[in-house]
Each structure stands twice: as C-alpha cells, then as structure tokens.
UniProtKB/TrEMBL annotation:
Biological classification of the source: Bacteria, Pseudomonadati, Verrucomicrobiota, Methylacidiphilae, Methylacidiphilales
Domain of life where this protein originates: Bacteria
Keywords: Lyase, Membrane, Transmembrane, Transmembrane helix
Entry membrane topology: Multi-pass membrane protein
Molecular-function GO term, any one: lyase activity
Transmembrane annotation, as ranges: 6-26, 71-93, 99-121, 133-153, 173-190, 233-253, 259-280, 292-312
Cellular component GO terms held in the UniProt record: plasma membrane
Keyword flag Lyase: yes
Xref: InterPro entries: ComplexI_Subunit1, NADH_UbQ_OxRdtase_su1/FPO
Full protein name: Formate hydrogenlyase subunit 4
Compartments where located: Membrane
Length: 316
C-alpha cells in the first residue's frame, strides 16, 4: 500500500512538472516549423513564476466565488489528470476511478470557471462562458460515446483495467478503436481550446473563448488557471497514450528497471504528442465559431460509428 501511494504521489508531481514543458514543446515546434527561433522550452515555467509573484487585482463586483474558482479548477484538473495511468498501469488512483469520473471532474471545473466568468460582471466573461458552454454541450456527448466504445472492447471503464487489456494485445487491430482515437483527438482539441477551435495566443474579442473567461484574473489566480489548462492538455495526451498506445507501461512486477522504462516511455510519448500537436496547428487555420458544431459533430459521428461497428462485428 505504501509503495503504491509513493508511486501515485510521484505520478501527481510528475504531471505538474512536465505540463509546462509540454506547452514549451508545442510553442517551440510551431516556431521551428515557421523558421523562427521561438521562446525557450522553459518559458512556461518562467511565466508561471512571474505570475505567482505579481499582485492580485480583483473586479469590484467579484464575490467569494471568483476567488475560490482558481483553486477549485486547479484541484479538479490535477485530480483528473492523476486518475489517468502514465508510466504504470497499476497506479493507486487509476484503480479507484474510471473514465466517467474524469469527465465529471472536468465538467465540474468547467462549471465553476463559467460561473466565475459571469461573476466578474463583464461582457467578455459572459461571452466566453456562453461559448465554452456551447463547446461543452457538443463535446461531452462525443466523449461519452468514446467511453462507451472503449468499455465495449475492454469490458470496463476502469482505466487501469483498460490499459492492462490493451497491453495484453487482446484488443487486436480494430477499426472501431481507430475511429474512437480520431474522435478523441477532435474532442481533445476542442476541450483544450487549441487551433482550429480556438487560438490561445490571441486576445481578440471576436475569437477568444477560454481567454475571455480568465481575462479578469491576475497574479496567483491566473497562474493557477494557466497551470490547470496545462494539466488538461497533459491529461488528454496521457489518455491517448494509456488507452491506445500503452506499450512500455510498467506493471510494477518488473522491478526498478520496469519503472524507469515506463517513465522514459511515457515522457517520450507525451513529448511526441506535443510535437505532433504543434505541427498540426501550423497546418490549419482558426475556424469560425459557427463551424465548431460541425467539427464536434464529426467527432460524435466517428464515435457513434465506432460503437455501431462493434455491435455489427459481434452480431456476425
């Protein structure tokens, strides 16, 4: 029990440590492919430290909810990320929760952030909150269908059991899993506000979604929200790696060598995922807001098609 608790604590702080680096890799990749120098890989760490040192300014109309939301969002995002198996398929938290719990935690964090954006009493907060609610209402059904597909294959929603099942090779090569992967990638892009759904590097009122909700935050509150956003990206990258590419994960029975192999494999997969995301973002342009339902509708249809294919294959 103590050993499992130590590994879980290590995993939780590993996620905190690598999440700013993932953002740095994405930015550096985009700059390099555009033939620019780009910021340092460590720049996100410097930005967070700078924000923690800055003074906090609050809107006059803000209530206690505005102050509490950054802590709630960061805690729930960190907990949700810790539920996903990373370097091991047998982490303590992974055996106590499942995919549905992750969706619930992220949904609760989004709910509090939307309320806080409205609590500030600004037009930008209401704009960002309404747009975020639109995306959530379209992304969550697709995510539920993805969970349904994976659960039908692995016969469980427990991420530890799913990862162990995928590592064993019993799933084989299934078209339904590839469709679920494609759907999950589209949902992850939308949920994290990445291009083409949103551009986190701009502050144009006509296009911003997530940035509009946190526009009134500053200092340590903004640092916590930025850290939560970084953890969310790592969460989805870890989810893709744990469910669809679980090779190299430790099962805690191979000794210390198995632990280090799992750790280095996980870091390599997350780094590769960040590079691929950065490369993808320079290939596409920001889409209009009214085209986002079509984007997430495609994600839902891919997940639905994956589920239908599973039922058809079992009936034959």
């Amino acid at each position: 029990m103590i050993k499992n608790l130590v590994f879980q604590c290590f995993d939780a702080f590993l996620l905190l440590a690598v999440s700013p680096l993932v953002i740095g890799i994405i930015r550096k990749t985009k700059a390099r492919f555009l033939l620019k120098q780009g910021p340092s890989l460590l720049q996100p760490y410097y930005d967070l430290m700078k924000l923690f040192r800055k003074e906090v300014t609050l809107p006059d109309s803000a209530s206690w909810l505005f102050k509490a939301t950054p802590y709630v969002v960061f805690t729930f995002s960190w907990l949700a990320a810790s539920l996903v198996p990373t370097f091991s398929a047998n982490l303590l938290f992974s055996r106590t929760a499942d995919l549905i719990a992750i969706v619930a935690l992220l949904g609760t964090a989004r709910f509090f952030l939307s309320l806080a954006a409205l609590d500030a009493g600004t037009s930008f907060g209401g704009l960002g909150s309404s747009r975020e609610s639109l995306i959530a209402s379209l992304a969550e059904p697709a995510m539920i269908m993805i969970i349904f597909t994976i659960a039908l294959v692995a016969k469980s929603t427990d991420l530890s059991a799913i990862s162990t099942f995928m590592i064993s090779g019993q799933a084989g090569l299934r078209v339904s899993l590839w469709l679920a992967l494609a759907s999950l990638v589209l949902v992850a892009i939308a949920e994290n506000g990445r291009i083409p759904v949103d551009n986190p590097a701009t502050h144009l009122e006509l296009t911003m979604i997530h940035e509009a909700m946190i526009l009134e935050y500053s200092g340590k509150y903004l640092a916590l929200l930025e850290a939560a956003s970084q953890l969310k990206i790592v969460l989805y990258l870890s989810l893709v790696a744990a469910v669809f590419f679980p090779f190299g994960m430790s099962t805690m029975v191979g000794g210390i060598s198995s632990f280090f192999i799992g750790l280095f494999t996980y870091i390599a997969k997350i780094g590769l995922g960040a590079i691929m995301l950065g490369f993808f973002e320079i290939l596409v342009a920001k889409m209009r807001l009214f085209k986002i339902p079509n984007f997430l509708g495609a994600a839902f249809m891919l997940a639905l098609l994956a589920t239908v294919l599973l039922f058809v294959s079992r009936s034959l």
